[in-house]
């Protein structure tokens, strides 16, 4: 019993660490457009994002419940705490590697792939909840394409609205709008991304016999929201540089269109209780906006590099989690 309690405590600590890292890793995506267009100074943008992330994180729990039960059944895991701990360590290591190199990799892909890889290493492929897992994979796969379309349509609409407007006045006004869109972006980021840590902590509590249902406890919600808010306050300026400038040259109207498009996709996913990658959605929305503006204006070489990272994240995190599980299983 002491070992189970120790493992549960370790899972909670590392889940909050993952959430903290997720905060500074993915917050860059939420505020990249507003910082790169100089609508907001970096420090102000990061503080605003931290507050809005916290508010978003404590508002919803549907995605957390999906993470708790849709990948694997926590009630059926005999060594669930070790499985979850291995998954968290793998996802944290992957996030730190991609953050160090300034690559906007997906924390969502990392943790979902890591949970699946660790569980398969422990109990074989039969342990996966295929109905729920496939549903999550579909959301992760389709959301970038939906975001590209949303970005393209939003920018096309903006081009019609501001067709005859004075460029200087329009840019000045749009910068004020971007303050609102960046806040909305950060709020929606909190509603989806922070819930992943909540779901993982709940899985650990169930696996450790400390909880009998899949409800998200109040202290879990608040602690995850605080961890993400604190992580957000640090910011990830390397990734801001990649997302905000290397995909395409952003102007205020482009940034606002990308923010509105990606926020609508992320929040829609939250409402139907599906985890999506905010990294994927925001980067894809920027690509869609760029394509609507001028296809050749999008730096597709950088975009291809980002997409390749998306593709390798889940299997890499899964393999890493499986290896870590085998190591931890020796000791526990």
From TrEMBL:
<protein>
    <submittedName>
        <fullName>Inorganic phosphate transporter</fullName>
    </submittedName>
</protein>
<dbReference type="GO" id="GO:0035435">
    <property type="term" value="P:phosphate ion transmembrane transport"/>
</dbReference>
<feature type="transmembrane region" description="Helical">
    <location>
        <begin position="140"/>
        <end position="162"/>
    </location>
</feature>
<keyword id="KW-0813">Transport</keyword>
<keyword id="KW-0472">Membrane</keyword>
<dbReference type="GO" id="GO:0016020">
    <property type="term" value="C:membrane"/>
</dbReference>
<feature type="transmembrane region" description="Helical">
    <location>
        <begin position="252"/>
        <end position="272"/>
    </location>
</feature>
<feature type="transmembrane region" description="Helical">
    <location>
        <begin position="219"/>
        <end position="240"/>
    </location>
</feature>
<keyword id="KW-1133">Transmembrane helix</keyword>
<keyword id="KW-0812">Transmembrane</keyword>
<dbReference type="Pfam" id="PF01384">
    <property type="entry name" value="PHO4"/>
</dbReference>
<feature type="transmembrane region" description="Helical">
    <location>
        <begin position="76"/>
        <end position="97"/>
    </location>
</feature>
<dbReference type="GO" id="GO:0005315">
    <property type="term" value="F:phosphate transmembrane transporter activity"/>
</dbReference>
<feature type="transmembrane region" description="Helical">
    <location>
        <begin position="109"/>
        <end position="128"/>
    </location>
</feature>
<feature type="transmembrane region" description="Helical">
    <location>
        <begin position="44"/>
        <end position="64"/>
    </location>
</feature>
<feature type="transmembrane region" description="Helical">
    <location>
        <begin position="307"/>
        <end position="328"/>
    </location>
</feature>
<dbReference type="InterPro" id="IPR001204">
    <property type="entry name" value="Phos_transporter"/>
</dbReference>
């Amino acid at each position: 019993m002491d070992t189970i309690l120790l493992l549960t405590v370790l899972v909670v600590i590392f889940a909050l660490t993952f959430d903290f890292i997720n905060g500074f890793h993915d917050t860059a995506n939420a505020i990249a457009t507003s910082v790169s267009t100089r609508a907001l100074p970096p420090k102000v943008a990061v503080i605003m994002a931290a507050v809005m992330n916290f508010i978003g994180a404590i508002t919803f729990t549907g995605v957390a419940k999906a993470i708790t039960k849709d990948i694997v059944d926590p009630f059926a895991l005999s060594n669930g705490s070790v499985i979850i701990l291995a998954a968290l360590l793998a996802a944290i290591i992957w996030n730190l590697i991609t953050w160090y190199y300034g690559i906007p990799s997906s924390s969502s892909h990392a943790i979902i792939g890591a949970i699946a890889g660790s569980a398969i290493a422990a109990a074989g492929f039969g342990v996966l909840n295929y109905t729920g897992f496939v549903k999550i994979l579909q959301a992760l796969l389709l959301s970038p394409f939906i975001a590209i379309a949303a970005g393209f349509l939003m920018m096309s609409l903006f081009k019609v609205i501001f067709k005859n407007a004075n460029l200087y006045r329009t840019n000045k006004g749009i910068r004020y709008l971007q303050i609102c869109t960046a806040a909305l972006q950060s709020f929606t980021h909190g509603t989806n991304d922070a819930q992943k840590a909540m779901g993982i902590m709940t899985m650990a509590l169930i696996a450790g016999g400390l909880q009998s249902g899949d409800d998200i406890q109040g202290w879990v919600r608040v602690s995850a929201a605080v961890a993400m808010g604190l992580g957000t306050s640090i910011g990830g300026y390397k990734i801001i540089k990649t997302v905000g400038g290397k995909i395409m040259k952003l102007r205020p109207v482009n940034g606002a269109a990308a923010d509105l498009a990606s926020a609508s996709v992320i929040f829609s996913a939250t409402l139907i209780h599906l985890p999506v990658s905010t990294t994927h959605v925001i980067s894809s929305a920027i690509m869609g906006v760029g394509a609507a503006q001028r296809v050749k204006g999008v730096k597709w070489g950088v975009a291809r590099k980002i997409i390749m990272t998306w593709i390798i994240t889940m299997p890499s995190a899964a393999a890493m989690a499986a290896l870590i599980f085998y190591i931890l299983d020796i000791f526990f």
